[in-house]
Structure formats: structure tokens, C-alpha cells
Design a protein that fits this description.
alpha/beta; Rossmann fold; Rna Polymerase Sigma Factor, Chain: A; 11 strands; globular; binds nicotinamide-adenine-dinucleotide; binds magnesium ion
Amino acid sequence: MQSITILGATGSIGMSTLDVVARHPDRYRIHALTAHSRVEELAAQCAQFRPKVAVVGSAEAADRLSALLRGQHVPTEVAYGEHALCEVAAAPDCSTVMAAIVGAAGLKPTLAAAHAGKKVLLANKEALVISGALFMEAIAASGATLLPIDSEHNAIFQCLPLDYRRMPGNHGIRKILLTASGGPFLDRDVSTLGDVTPEQAVAHPNWSMGRKISVDSATMMNKGLEVIEAHWLFGAAPEQIEVVIHPQSVIHSMVSYADGSVLAQLGNPDMRTPIAHALAYPERIDSGVEPVDLARIAQLHFRRPDYERFPCLRLAFEALQAGGSAAAVMNAANEIAVEAFLDRKIGFRRIPELIATVLDRVPHEAVEGLDSLLAQDRRARDCARELVQASY
Ligand code: NAD
Ligand code: MG
């Protein structure tokens, strides 16, 4: 029986994880559920799954959650704050951690799970973008198992040899082909991109996701973050990672081998597939997702990405090439820019401009440890907030 902590249980990935877990009560039980502020949703999840602990973002949210749970006679303990998140991620009676908090807020608890040697199901790509080297070191040192949840990386994982050890050259791997839907603005007139609204940007054509990753998909920063994620997960150099636009999101990514073979993983665009794959790995279980109907889809389309339309993708490749703290700085600037766009403080086209300016102004450094990375993250956020203020 796996005992699971879900960091970010009320989010899109968190809810899909609980959907899969509920289908297999004989295999999985819930150790802890966490949410930032959606207390009512978390209370309902606690009533259904009876975790030992629930964690929220503030003392006030903890009081509200405790009152709701008392009213329903649910015996779950309530805690709050980052320290409590790290505790439930590293708890001895939890074997598996779903890391599904969005953004840098998920970094410390995800690292805590890595240090504690858990089976880490990684959705929180920002953690790897910020601290890839430290994170992979923590996984290796503790003997933790790392399984990618991001659909592309889960697909790549499925297309790699079983004994793969982060060295593409040892396995005749030529390239990792990272597919991208291109988001809602793939065919929109570029000159009108400045006018898009948050509602248009979060309306992804294929996937239903949280607001931040939906905007990242519209700018293609999501694919940029995923290039960096693939670099750390699979040990691939930037030139070994190629982005391919595939608007239908049926192929979730591919691995190209020296003999001309290209292996792909296909499926309907539903995150319950990678979640079920990682939960049960190396077994296979029902996820609730129907298999793809290829005859109905009939055609699959592919094209190369356009950096004019999607400058964020270029910024991410450049940050990866630059190394050190550059990716952390880029990620921090992106988080502030996306928030400002969602709050209607800056326009859509301003997002990449703002990130590029922050990358120019905050000199990146060699990575010395978590504290220096977090200091760079703070500097980048301060710089990005100033730029938002100036353009507001
Ligand atoms: P979401 O916005 O739907 O959910 C985010 C979760 O994080 C919520 O439970 C929220 O309570 C929690 N949270 C937010 N801010 C927090 C904070 N400051 N402290 C503690 N908890 C906080 O996001 P999502 O779409 O589920 O994405 C989660 C992660 O998974 C992201 O890193 C995203 O890039 C990644 N991911 C998501 C998808 C998807 O289909 N949704 C696919 C691939 C990867
Ligand atoms: Mg993805």
C-alpha cells in the first residue's frame, strides 16, 4: 500500500491525482493533502480521503479548516506554512509525494521529499528549473525515485530504455523531441498579440490546467521551462533537445535514436495518464482515460516553432546555455510577469520583454547552494515588480 502526500491537492494536477487514487483504494491511501487558500475544497477532500494531516497557507486558513473538519467529524490534523509542507513531504509514514504546487512556492517541500528519499512524482517543473543541479544531487544522494508527471517528460521516460541513466550517448540517443501544442495563439496574427486578454490566454485548446501554466502555454514559456526540465531529468545537452509543434497534443513527446527509429508515446490529452503511470510504475493501472481513437483523429500535424511569435522559448534556451542561476532568474521574472498579466497590469507582449530585461539587469551567478539561488530569485522578483510598476 503506497501512502501518498499530495502537495497542491486542490489544483488541477492534485484533483486529477485524487481521481486516480479513488479508483484504486486497494493500492493507495492518502497521508497528507495541502492547499494554499481553497479551504472548502480541501475540507471536502479530507472528508472523502481521510488523510492524517492537512496543510494550508496561513493560521487564519488553518482555523477555518479546523472548524469545517470538526463540524464533519473528520479527524485530520491541521497545520500551516512552509515548514509544515516540508514535514508532510518528508514524513516517515509517507512513501510517495506528488509535487503539484505551482511555481517557486513548491521548491522547498519538493526538495524535502527528494532529501527524504521518497518516490517523488514531479509536476512542479519550476522546482527543477530553479535548482536542477541541487535537486538531482538530492535525488541521487538519498536514493529517491524521481518520476516525471509533466506529460512530455513522462512520455520521454516511457520511450527511454529501462536502464537509462541520464547519459544519452550511452544509449544511441540522437535527440529528444519535445512536442508543444503551440497554445491558443499559434495561428493568431502576431501584430494583434498585444491585445489578448487573460481569458483568451488561459483558454487552452487541448488541456484544462491551472491559470499560471495556461498563460505559460500561450507564451510558450511552458515549453521553455520544459526544455530546461528535460535537460536535468534526462541529462540532455540543449542541442539534443528539439521542440516540435504538434497542435493536436496526441503525441506527448518522442525520442530519436541513432538507427533512425523515433519512439513516441500517444494518448488523449488527460493528465490522469502520466499520473497513473507514475503512481503504478512499473505496473500499469486504469486511469479513467479512454485510449486514442486514431481513425477519428485521422491526421497528425507538425511544424517548427516560430521564435518571433514565441520569444519566451528563445529566452529559455539562452538561460539554459548561460547556466548558473540564469534559469532561476528567468523563472522568477516569468512568475511575476504572468501574475501581472493575469491582474491586467501588463499586456501579453510585455511578458517576454519584461523577462528579457530582468535577465539583463540581474547578473547570473554560479550556483553555490540553495540560499544563493533563493537570493537571486528574490532579486529577480524585485526587479520584475519594479518594471511592472513602471509600466502600470
Ligand atoms: P493549479 O494552479 O491548478 O494548482 C496549484 C496548487 O498549488 C493548488 O493546490 C494551490 O493551493 C497550491 N499553491 C499555490 N500557491 C501556493 C503557495 N504559495 N504555497 C503552497 N501551495 C500553493 O496548478 P496546476 O495546473 O495543477 O499545476 C501545478 C504544477 O504542475 C505546476 O508546476 C505546473 O507547471 C505543473 N503541471 C501542470 C499540468 C496541468 O495539466 N495542470 C501539466 C504539467 C505540469
Ligand atoms: Mg507539459
